[in-house]
Amino acid sequence: MDGLVRFGSHDYCLMVLLLVFTRGIDILSTWIASPNLELEGNPFIKFLGWRWGIIFTLGLCFGMAFWPASAIGIATFSVMVASRNFQSAWLMRTMGEERYHQWRVARIRETPIVLYLLCLAGHTLPIAALGFAVAFYGSDLLSAHNPITAVAPLSIGIGIMGYAVAVAGFIMLAVWRLRRPTRHKSQALPAGPAMLVSSAMKDPLADSCACETGEIPGK
């Protein structure tokens, strides 16, 4: 399915442009929301920092452009992550990364876990179902002569499903890590104001996708 395209060909250049654009808006959304990468949920990108992260992204764009199916899937995933980032980027930038993080942690602590997980399922399951439908019903186009037209529906569907899985997985992991120390220390520590959250609790909430801190992608 994921056939190679020739370097420098029309299809290759098209895939490069697609990846540069979609990865670019993902990076832009992350920069607006978390210029210091304090809310960045991807530990690898956080380790690389802005300079090396951009260099790595450019290498990814030129490398994955050889495989249209993978390139379209990555582009779809990137667009959805960027859209989610922009949804709360204005609030993250206005409040500041540390203050937003503490506020987010406080709200999560106050929310019953069952209610939170039900809302998470309500957000991610319909998106995953939509991705599956696009991939499944788009399979009729696999007989198309153009290689990009042939793989596009399936790749877009997989990208949508990948986004839903990533959001749900990162958020559940972050919430589990956040609430785990609370169970062990709840007996020994007195309750305090919701906003008095120790900065030591920041790591458990590393965001889900790019800058949506595991604090739950508001990203």
The ordered H/E elements are HHHHHH
Largest sheet: none
Gross morphology is globular
Q: What do the pLDDT scores average to?
A: 80
The fraction of residues assigned to DSSP E strands is under 5%
Percent helix: 55-70%
The helix tally amounts to: 6
Q: What is the terminal separation in angstroms? A: 32 Å
Q: Please tell me how large the radius of gyration is.
A: 19 Å
User: Regions with pLDDT < 50 over 5+ consecutive residues?
Assistant: 182-210, 212-219
Count of folded domains? 1
Count all strands and give the number: 0
Structural descriptors:
219 residues, mainly alpha, 6 helices, 69% helix, disordered C terminus
Description:
- The protein is mainly α.
- It has one domain.
- 69% of the residues lie in helices and 0% in strands.
- It is built from six helices and no strands.
- Helix 5 runs antiparallel to helix 6.
- The longest helix is centred in the C-terminal third of the chain and has 39 residues.
- The radius of gyration is 19 Å and the shape is globular.
- The two termini are 32 Å apart.
Chain-wise SSE layout:
Blueprint: H1 10-33, H2 43-64, H3 68-95, H4 97-110, H5 113-137, H6 147-185
Quick take:
The protein is mostly helical. The protein has helices at 10-33, 43-64, 68-95, 97-110, 113-137, 147-185. Helix 1 runs antiparallel to helix 2 (43-64).
